[in-house]
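ugh finaly. both done.
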Amino acid sequence: VQYVKKNTRAFGISFDLDAFDPEVAPGVGSPEPNGLTLKAVKSAFKTLAHEKAFVGIEFAEFNPERDIKNKTAQLIKNLILSLIRSEEL
């Protein structure tokens, strides 16, 4: 975050959902076994939520046709809410 904030007024990130373990996010384009855990990502997002220069996020590689019981869609929703309401982390 410190590197990204250098010499800029604002920043956003693109988050590739393929990075999650398929147990956490089955609805992605290229599932990655042994990928990121929800706990690790929420910890990183907690840092972002408190950054005044953080202005946006994009979630990439969501594939609703592969999603199981809307698990990945719900994950995206919860991650967005965690950025808005950082106390939920």
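ok and the 2nd:
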Amino acid sequence: MTTITHDDGRRGVAVSVELDATPAQCWQAIATGAGISSWFLPTDVDERVGGEIRFHFAPGESSGGSVTAWNPPTLFSYVEKGEWMPGAPDLATDCTIESLPGGGCRLRIAHSMQADSTQWDSTFESFAVGWASAFRVLRRYVREHPGERAASFRVGGTSKTSREDTW
């Protein structure tokens, strides 16, 4: 993963995944509250430019911002205010969907923020790792359950044994 430095001083990262889905199916999965909630995190989306987007990580823990582009089924963008991490600048996210020859589509997610140093580069690296894991779930969702709603829950606990032994 390489951090991208833009001419205007923004820094960021971009990741992509090819999906066995139509652009419309991909759009439903990544740009609607019901869709995102079905494979990623419980999410609310006011589906319009200027609408609010809010990701719910756990009870009482969420971050959100504003939808900045809404062009179904090709471009969905939003800016999360600095609440996504203490001391963080606003984070812009662009989700672009393109049709692939022979079927399917490619989803590209690009994150960027105004940063005058490499301070946030490790965060971008963690985004890339996190998206790789999330894309495995997204691939399965659009292939086996497109358009279906899901319920999310988290399970947690502690163990005195190693992580491997606990699993």
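summary for the 2nd one i guess: Strands lie at 4-5, 10-19, 43-45, 52-58, 61-71, 75-80, 91-99, 105-114.
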